[in-house]
Amino acid sequence: MTRFPIISSKEIVKALRAAGFENAPKRGKGSHIAMMKRDHDRTRLVIIPDRKNIPRGTLRAILDQAGLTREELQNLLKI
Question: Which residues contact 59 (CB under 8 A, 6 or more apart)?
Answer without folding.
Answer: 4, 6, 7, 12
